[in-house]
Each structure stands twice: as C-alpha cells, then as structure tokens.
Fold these 4 entries.
Entry 1:
Amino acid sequence: MGEHIDQAALDEAVTFTSELIRIDTTNRGGGEGSERAAAEYVAERLSGAGIEPQMLEKAPGRTNVVARIPGSDPGADALLVHGHLDVVPAEPADWSVHPFSGEICDGVVWGRGAIDMKNADAMVLAVARAWARAGVRPRRDIVLAFTADEEDSAEYGSDYLTDHHPGLFEGCTEGISESGAFTFHAGDGLRLYPVAAGERGTAWLELTARGKAGHGSKVSRANAVSRLAAAVARIGEHEWPQRLTPTVRAALKELAVVHGLPEPDTDAPDFDADKLLAQLGPAAALVEPTVRNSSNPTMLSAGYKVNVIPGSATAFVDGRMLPGGEEEFHRTLDELTGPDVDWEFHHREVPLEAPVDAPAYAVLREALEHFDPGAHVVPFCMSGGTDAKQFSRLGIAGYGFTPLKLPEGFDYQALFHGVDERVPVDALHFGTRVLDRALLAL
C-alpha cells in the first residue's frame, strides 16, 4: 500500500502548498474575506483528476468546495476529509519573508497557511490526484470539503454547509482534519504524535454592566465601570477545578507510560492531574490546557469622556468548556459576574469527544507508526476548536489528523497564527504518504 504515491504526488503537495499560500484568503472576521480564488484553484485540480467539485457560497466570494470520491464498497459508511481555505491576518513588516509569497527556500515552504492549513489542503489534493492517476479507489466514499470562514464563526463555511447542504455528507460517520499527528519532541529523543480526539467547546461571552450615569466628580455607588471591572477581575483570577474527560484520561495514561512512570489511576477520587503534569516535562503542554474549563477576559469597552460616568460598560471573555462541563461553566459565570453584571453567549459551539478505542483511531495510529517506527502516538483534546464542531451536528466524529514529521526545535504549535509560519518540504512528503495509507485503510 502506498506505492502509487509517486514523486509527482510529493512534488504536487509542495507546489500546491506554495501556490495556495500566494492566494491571499485573509479572514478579518465580521464577514470580511474571500476564499473564491483559492476555491477555484482547488476545484480546477480536482476536475483535472476527474473528480467533480461543487462550489457553494452563502455570500459572494465566501466559497466552499465539496466533492465525493466513490468507494469500492457501496455498503460502507463514508469518510469526510475537510480543511479550510481561509487564513488569519498577517502583518508583512513582522515577517522574515512576505507572508503571501509562498517562498520555498532551503527545504522549507514559507507563508501564512503553511501550517494552518493550506498544507493539509495541498496534501489531500495531491493524494486524490495520485489515486486518479493510478486507478486506485478507496473502500469507502470519501467526501472532500474545502471550507470558508473557519477562522471566524464558520457562518459562511461549515455552518452554512451543514445547515443548507447536509445531503452532500450523506453516510459520513468520521471526519479528519487539522491540528493533530505532528511530531512533538518531548526530550531525550522521545517523539510523540498527538492525534486529536476531542475539542473544548467555544464560549465567547459578552458581559454588560449597568449603573447610574452621572458627573465624574460626584460619588457614585452604582458605577457600571467599577462593577464590570470587578466582575472581569473575578473571572480572570478564577481557578477552575480539574475536570477529566475520557480523551484526557487516555492521554495522561499514555504519556505517563511513555515517560517511564507508573500508569496512573485517573478514576481515583484523589487523582491530581496537575501533579502528574509536573512530571511530564514538555509533553505536559499537550494536556495542560484541557484538564479544566477556562475563561480569559480579552476586551473592554466603556465611556466616552473622562469626567462622565457611563450608564453601561461591556467586556468580552474567551471561555472554553470541556465535554460535560457546560453546566459547571454556566453556574460559575453566574456566580462570578454577580447581580450587577449580565452575560450572554456572543458565540457558542459545542465541545466534542471522539472515541480513542475505535477502529478509526487505530488506523490513524498505525499509519503514523508505519512511516515513523519510533513514534509514540497519543490522543489529546484540543484546547480550541475546528470545523469538526459544525460537522458533528451531522453525527460525524472528528479526529485531528494532519500528519507532519517535524525536526527538533520546530515549534509547530507556536506557528499557528504566528509570525514566520512555515513547513518543511520533508514534512509535506511524510504527510502525503501517511494520509494516503490512512485514508485507504479507514
């Protein structure tokens, strides 16, 4: 298996990554963005391989591409492979190279989207075209979805597709996408490959404090700014309790074992995740953000003049909820905001959990270990979210699986939305081979 991934496929993975980066698909939020040119690029390369793409838009320029590759077993469930076409903004003055140059230099492809996630889009295209050249058919139908607007609310992308075109995903039971299967160097030569099998839920909050407007020189016992500031301080300082999901329990057990520690009893009433994390060195970073809910104040707005007490003040909080943690989150926010501050969801998406004891996860593990025999594949829960949240509405279990073999010192996670985003050519070659093997075996 995999002999049909020829040099042409490896070259295409690199070329497509570079050329997609050159198409500026910056998503500035609030509906400002355009993925159309990248969608047309993808559709042309699918059509060139005899794969029929559909281009779908909720608004002009906010273009999605969906295509289905028929499988050889008509009775099998379908598999969704999805990636987004938009990228977050990049300030050229901060970069070593222009962020939309797609420059290939010293075996590295540079630019916004090299990691998040035009690299994955390119590898999927390269694999699909290699199958077409070699006459290879997967066992199951594979639905390819290249989406708009993932970097904001997904209103024009996966949210639109699942609400208005659910039939395109008929039969899909699992989906694979971004933010997993990369090399994480944990020290002493230990190579981990975290495969995502869960996501915390998005809980972006808007807080509103109300008080009595008046002159800044007068004593005010009902100051909206003071009330809001007190609530924001309580939220920012709150220490959320430990809450362990099945994915996080599995991650802690496997990480303990690969670090030579006794397998912990994560179900014990006195189990202390923080104590174990302190023994895991760099690998703790994979799990630490997901052993509890979180709430980070991010924006404040109040007043218009220094000597005027405003009648209201607002703040925004980036909250994240673990599977099963929604009730705790609601209750805690009610307590922290108090009687003088109201809160509501500015944007909300569900937390996710995918089984790590399922055959699909075993296939993903095997494909990585096949091409890197020294690998230790571990499950993890993402601290943030992806389009898998929207696709979960259709009953699709999502895994984060964009395989990349990365050298030591290459901080994959820091390059997400970071300056000088880049990906090694060798990593794209590795990922293309692993994706081919995994997709045909799933």
Entry 2:
Amino acid sequence: MRTVFKTTVVASVMMAALAIAGSASARDGNYTPVGTWKTIDDTTGKPKAIVRITENNGVLQGKIEKLLRGPEEDQNPKCVQCKDANKDQPIIGLVMLTGLKQDGNEWSGGQILDPADGKVYKTKAELIEGGTKLKVRAYVGIPMIGRTQTWLREE
C-alpha cells in the first residue's frame, strides 16, 4: 500500500512539474511579436483591425487580416490616401508594418503605414505584460515625436 501511495505522490509531483514547465515555455514562446494582434486606436480606445505579424530572417512584418468596423461602414475599403504601389489597394491584405529587427528587449528600425492618412512612419515595438500586449510607437524623426498604440495578442 505504501509503495502505491509513494508512486502516486511521485507521479502527481512529476505531472505538476511538467504542467508548470509547459506553461512557462508557452509564456516564453510568446516573447516574440510573431502572431496575431488586435490593434487598438490610441484616440478612441476601440479595436480597429487584426494584424498578423510574421518573421523572416529576423525581420518582422505585419499584414492587416481583418478590419473591425461597424455594419454601416465600408467592409472592404481601399487605401485611397496611400502612395506608390499601395494607392487604391484594399486595406485588408495590406502589409503595413515592415523592417522591425530585435534590439535587446524591443524591435526597432521598421516602418509602419497608417492607411487612414497614407503616411509611412518610423516605428518600434516592445512586448509588455508578459507578451500579452505589444506597445507600438510610430514617429517622425525621433521616438519622442509620435504616437503609441497598445495591441492585444489574439492567439
């Protein structure tokens, strides 16, 4: 009886340790911006879009997968304010975040396109709150002159 009890206790402890290790590695695995994010408008506080961030050779890019719009709004708008190849292209599917590279605890050196005004800004990003949120800073010239949005991890 004692052997069964010991075996059960040891098995329970091992299962608990594996569960803790598994949840820790899941958290550690989220310490990258790669994934799907809900963008939150820094002016209204309302969700705007779903953006998927991918990584290729250490460089991040983000593509708009879905717009979060009211039923009265155009569900497939075009980027009428955009310049160059993005001019009059659908906003859904638009690559709006490019060139971010990891630099310590943040990703920097990239650009972000604001489809609302068609302008391209310098950008940097930082994971916060254990990787559940992404602080995205768009700026002109220096980071002090710009705007910050906090995006929420979707997956």
Entry 3:
Amino acid sequence: MGINELITQLNDALWSYLLIGVLVLCGLWFTWKTKGVQFRMVGEMVRLLTDSATSGINKADETKHRHISSFQAFAVSVATRVGTGNLAGVATAIAIGGPGAVFWMWLIALLGSATAFVESTLGQLFKQRNNESFVGGPAYYIQKGLHCKWMAYLFAVLITITFGLSYNSIQSNTICGAMHEAFGWNPLVVGIILSVVALVIVFGGIHRIANVSAVLVPIMAIGYFILALAIVLMNIEHIPHVLSVIFRDAFGLEQGVGGALGATIMNGVKRGLFSNEAGEGSAPNVAATATVSHPVKQGLIQALGVFTDTLLVCSCTAFVILISGLYNVPELNGIALTQAALGSEIGSVGPIFIAVAILLFAFSSIIGNYYYGEANIRFMTSNSTVLTVYRIFSAGVFVMFGALASLDVVWNLGDLCMALLTACNLVAIIKLGKYVFRLLDDYRTQKSNNIKEPVFRRKQLPEIEKDIDCWE
C-alpha cells in the first residue's frame, strides 16, 4: 500500500460521519445558544467592518502600540478562506461528490458561521500583548481557558503543519496547474517564482501581510464575483434547473445509492470546511490581532467572512460549473474543471482569467497561511532560528513541493491535517463556549441601552479574570 492510499484510508476513517456529525452538531448548538447570531446580526457585522480600529480604545494605548485594524484582520482571514477552495475545491467537490455537494457546502457555512463567531470571540478574549501588537488563537485560549498546556502545544503543532506546510502546497499546486492549463508554463519554473516572492513577503511580518492582503483580497474577490455573477445572470433561465439538480442530488434522490450519497455529503463538508475554515481554529489567530473595544466585535466580523466565502464566492463557482454541464466529464477535476467551465461561457479568455485570478487568490492564501503558522511557532518558542527554518519550509520548500506533487497527494494530505486540527479545536470551543454566550449577552445589552460601541473589561468575567491578559 502506497503512502497516498494509506492517507486516503485515514481520511475516510476520520471524516466518515464522525467529524461531519460533530461539525453539524456544534453548528446547531452554537446557533441555538447564540440565538442565531449569524442571521440576526448581519447588519451589525457589516457596520463593524468599516468601523475605526480604535473605537472604544484608550488613546494613550493607541499611541503606544501598533495595531491591526478590524478590516485588516478580516482581510487576512478572508485571504486564507478565499482561495483555491473557491475555485479548485468547489470543482473537486462537484466532480467527486456530484452537484449535491454544493448544498452541503451551504449548510456547513450557515451553521459554521456561528462556530466561527464563537472561536474568533474566544481568540479576542484570551489574546496577549506581543511587543507592539496582539497575538492569540486556539493555542492561547486552550492554555489560558482550559489550563491544558499539552493540548495547546498539540494544536500549535497541528495548525503549523496544516496551514503553513500542507495547505501552502495545495495553493501552489493549484496555481501551477492553472498556469500550465492556460499558458503551458513549466510547474518547476512557476514554483521557483512563487517561492522567491513568498519568502520576500513572509520575512516582512504580519503588518506587511495585512497590507498586501488588504489590497489583493478586494481586487480578487470583487473581480471574480462580478464575472461569475455576470455569467449567472446571462444564463438566468438555467438557474431553476441548477438549483433543482443540487437539491435532488444532495439527498440522493437522483443517484439512489447510499454510498454515492455519503460521498456527496463528505465532499461537500470537506471542501466547504477547507474553504470557509469555520471551526478549524485558523481565523481566531488573526482575529486576535485586531484592536476592538469588545471581543464580540471581531467574532461578528469573522462570522461575516464565512458568508462572504461560501455563500457568495463558492456559489458563483458552483453555478458556473453546473451551467456549463462539464461536471460529468471524467477527465476534468480541480482547477481544470473551473477553467473549462468558464471557457465554455466566455471563450478562450476564460482559462486565462482563471489562471490570473487563482494566482491572486492562492498567493494571498499562501501568505495568510504562513502567518497562522508563525503565530503558533511564536506561542511555542521565541527561538528566532526555529522561526527562520519555518519560514523557509513554509514559503520555500512546501510551495515547491506543491508545484511538483500530484493533485491527489496534496489534497489528501490537506484533508488529513484538516480533520486532526478541527477535532482538536472543537473540543476546546465546546468547553469554552459558555464565556462567549455571556459576552454576546453583554454586547446585546449595551446595544439595547443605546451604546453604539460596547466596551468589555476583564473584571466582567471575575472567575477567569486572572487568565485574561488584556482588557484592563
């Protein structure tokens, strides 16, 4: 048995309804306990995204510390969400699991946005000062909130491997595949160029990453969304049929085979989670770096990121693929299917556009993924040599590995890492969720009292006040 076959079997064992069931149950639990925060507070999410980074923050503190704004934190997290999962991941889910996989991607996004709210709020609550900025994430709230150091270190290792190494190989693999499909470029050459540029950026630190992402994310997301939406509108008469196919296939009404339905659900959930990251424990790392007056603010903003990713960008890709009818072609999978589908609608410029778009999508994900690893390396050690080695492996070695490896190898490895990482984080947020529910009640109470910018101080949670480093 080869390594890839062994990884595939491990994936099936981990994902076969056990982890899928836990994800859905967590989403339902958090939706109920937060009274549907992801639906009831969408307006507040949008308002907060454009708010000043220092709303409710002491001005003396502002001048002493260099902060990441709410929008920059949102941009970095969306940079990792909006990427190959939206173009190649959606195509892979449909090619393997059928059109019904799209429904399960939607479901995991609707429920997962409540999970994303909980984990990102916890990231803010237990964040710590680090020189001129903040750091945080699951490793921090596991150590401070659960007082479980070994589990905190386990998570830190898992997320560093998953995002900083494995996921970066997926991004690189997709870029190289798109460039080869559109221009015939050698993956080795493309991989070398990607590695060099990524290394230059990651050695600049989180503020450079935030600045780059704040520029790239709006360009790539808006541009691709407009094009895909235009294609959908031009084919509006086909949408009822497309929706019918999605919903019939989602519940096995077309294939009528239990195993096929299982593949539909599994691929929809896996690709949905890879794309929006809700519950995976990644977004809290960058959510913690933002300067806000109340932890709930960044939780709401990160919940909005899940909607942005799956319900908008992923849906556009799915509709274009299903309208084209090419999802039944066995030879097409991954980014090649998306390129072929777009090409069938707008001609030869389609594959070229996707190649350029995936370059922006996936490259911004590479630098965002790198940061998640850096934040957790810093949690485990202050040794600068370890960080330097990690930077070389993340932006150099594994970007090159992805350029040269096969599509199946990089995606199977990514799925395995994702399952282990998500399981570890879900255990933590289930146990710590009670603090988030209280924070949300406090936020809503202040808003009902006509306080536009609610403020939180750690003394409001006296039983864990000693474990909270910020929020004086």
Entry 4:
Amino acid sequence: MSPLEPFGARLRHAMDARGPLCVGIDPHGSLLSAWGLNDDVAGLERFTRTVVDALAGTVAVFKPQSAFFERFGSRGIAVLERAVADLRDAGALVVMDAKRGDIGSTMAAYAETYLRKDSPLFSDALTVSPYLGYGSLRPAVDLARESGAGLFVLALTSNPEGAEVQRAVREDGRTIGATMLAHLARENAGQTPMGSFGAVVGATLGDLSSYDLDINGPLLAPGIGAQGATPADLPGVFGPAVRNVVPNVSRGVLRHGPDAAALRDAARRYADEVRAAAGA
C-alpha cells in the first residue's frame, strides 16, 4: 500500500486482509498487576512490548490509549512512540486514542502532534472530541487529509454520561450526535472504498436505526468484551453500516496475556466472530 493512500482505503485493505478487529492497548495499573508486572515504566514497557510482539503482524488495527502512557511522563511517551513506530512497521494501523479537542492554534498543535508525517507520534488516525463545535476540528481535518491520515469523532459514545450532550436536540430537531454524523458524511462524500473520517459509536447502545450511520466512513465501536457487547450484537446495532464497523476489544484480548500464543488466539477468535457476524 502506498503511504499516501488515504486512511479509509488503507483501513479497508487491512481489515479485509487481517480481519475486522481493533485491539486497544490500555496498560492501566490493574492490568499490569494481573500480568504480574509493577505499575511503573518498566512494567509499562514490558506489557507494551509483549502486546506488540505478539499481535503486530496479525491484527489490523491497534488503539493505544495515550493517557495510560502519559501518566509516566516523558518515559511513558517514549514507550508509546516506539510502540506506534513498531506497529506501523509491522503493517498494522494505529488509531491514537487521545480524544483531543480545542480551538485555533491549540487544535492545530494537537493535530501536528499526531497527524504530521514527521512527528514521533504520527498515527494513522486520531480520536477527537467535537464538543467545542465541529468547526473547531478543522485544523485536524485538513492536516489528516493532507497526510493521508484519518479521524474518529466522538458521536454516540457508550458511557452513560455522553447522552446528555450527544442526544440533546437542536432547534432543527436533530440531535447533536446525528449532527456530527452528518458532518462526517459530508467529509467522506465520493470517497472509495470509504472515507477517512469516522465516528466513535458504542457497540453497547442497542438499536440505532433512528440514526443515519451510513457516513461512508468507519465506525469505531468500543464496548465489545468486558463492557458487555459481543460480535453477534453488531448487526443489530449498526444495521447496513456493519461492514464499516471497526470493533474495538481491549480487556477481552489483553486479559489473556502475558502469554503470546493466548493473546494471538483471543484476537483471532474475536476477528473471526466479527467477520461471521458482519458477513464480511
């Protein structure tokens, strides 16, 4: 694949080749402890290295949660930088889960951190928050398009608190979440095999048929595994858009570590179950 190929196209190729699965890399303290590791930089590095070595060559997408690396300061960020580089070198795509959102030059600086090609943290896509107004994301949208990267915009998240904002109704009768989906559909118009600007939509939300999820872009779906959703739930939640779903599993895979073979087996099972459920 050309490095200049847009993220949406690269994502489709990766999921078709390796299976429709995103594995979250969430090294929180309790998980490090469950692996028999200390909650320190050495434990963080051992955990991250094990996940990368076990899965980078077979899983399509990884979503490192930046906060769990940031909490160790510059040494934690160094572990994250190496992980991002090694995952991408192995042919996997990296979605940086940083949920950045701001305005003007600050948003531009966040975009440069994760979406500028020569940045140490350059990722294939970035999660962003649009709740300072969708237009505040324009620096990230523009740089992502220029760099062949993508964005995942928080639209209908699985946390209960999200509903008070995302399901609030505007004067035109449309919810805030639906408005974000409409913005993304416009960004992706005419792109094949799909656009690069996706939405975060929780897999635990049940029937979403009242929302137009056909944004011609990817739908990052957290909530499978420890949060209670299963791959079999995906068609009922996402309907005809299920083929563009990128299901994220974190603890459901990571709890099988530190055994590398067990990690690979768990990731393979989830990918196979998603493929069967989505008819992919």
